[in-house]
Structures are given as C-alpha cells and as structure tokens.
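lol forgot to send this yesterday, sorry. struct tokens for the thing we talked abt
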C-alpha cells in the first residue's frame, strides 16, 4: 500500500507538470497561469456551494428519517473533490470538477462504499 501511495504522489505531480508545460507551449505562460488560478478560485466557489447543498440535504434527511448514513460517502467524495479543485493543476481540477457534479459524486460514493465494505468484510469478518 505504501508503494502505491508513493507512486501516486510521484506520478500525479509529474503528470500535472507535463500537462501544464503542454498547455503553456500552445497558449503561453500567462494564459496557463491565468487558467490555473481561475480554476482554483472557481473550485473554491464550487466547493462552498456544493458543500452547502450537501449539508442542506443531510439536515433535511436527518429531520425526516434519522441520520443519513448513505450520505457520508458523498461527503467524503466531496472533501476529496474540494481538495482536488483547490490544488492547482489541470488534471486534479478536472477530477475535482467531475466530483462536484451530484450525480457523479453519488455514483462514485456508492462504488467506494461497496469497495470499502467488501474489503472490510473480507479482512475482518470471515
């Protein structure tokens, strides 16, 4: 697991830099920096709006039917999306933007919850 994380932390910045250099080659450095800063600011704004919308949904479901455990996965994906959107770079910004879409976030959350629960049951329940 540690090797995978180390590989991920080495590859993602290298890919981000490569894409930034490629964009800068075609558009120039001023446009590249502008797009990068704009995407981070847009990410912060979208993170705030999506977080407020998610929290309003959680509060509504909490009052109607009790604690909405199924929304916790969406909250975790939203936190990852916020981190990706604020991180400068085109690749992480695109992934973060995709995770901001409620339908995509719900689908990814279902997948992650199923994957984590199956791993948990395989390791600790059998």
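and heres what i got for the seq, position by position
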């Amino acid at each position: 697991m540690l090797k995978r994380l180390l590989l991920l932390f080495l590859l993602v910045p290298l890919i981000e830099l490569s894409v930034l250099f490629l964009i800068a080659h075609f558009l120039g450095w001023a446009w590249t920096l502008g797009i990068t800063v704009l995407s981070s600011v847009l990410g912060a704004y979208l993170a705030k709006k999506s977080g407020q919308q998610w929290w309003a949904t959680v509060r509504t479901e909490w009052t109607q039917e009790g604690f909405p455990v199924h929304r916790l996965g969406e909250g975790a994906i939203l936190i990852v999306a916020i981190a990706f959107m604020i991180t400068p770079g085109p690749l992480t910004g695109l992934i973060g933007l995709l995770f901001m879409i409620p339908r995509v976030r719900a689908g990814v959350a279902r997948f992650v919850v199923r994957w984590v629960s199956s791993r948990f049951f395989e390791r600790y329940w059998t």
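The CA atoms of residues 42 and 85 lie 8 Å apart. anyway ping me if u want another try
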